[in-house]
Amino acid sequence: MPTIRIKATAEKDIRSLSPPIRERLTQTILSLRETPFPPGSQKLRDMDRHYRLRVGDYRILYEFDAAAGSVTIYRVKHRREAYR
Length: 84
Known about the structure:
Layout: E1 3-6, H1 8-15, H2 19-31, E2 42-43, E3 50-55, E4 58-65, E5 70-78
Parallel strand pairs: 1-5
Antiparallel strand pairs: 2-3, 3-4, 4-5
């Protein structure tokens, strides 16, 4: 079971959201421990281990490192801002 690491930028992104959205995103992030590639996750183009997961209008951008057994969340953004 992989460990979940959340970078400071992602923590800041999550803290800035309203409580209902924050709770929904937190539940989804915690579920990545059980399934690093849930239905709907997509590999980011031209990036080796980077994926995105859609949660409503928000995107969780993460990296899965099989060798280290970790999922690193590096951004949580609204869809219009996620890929800038």
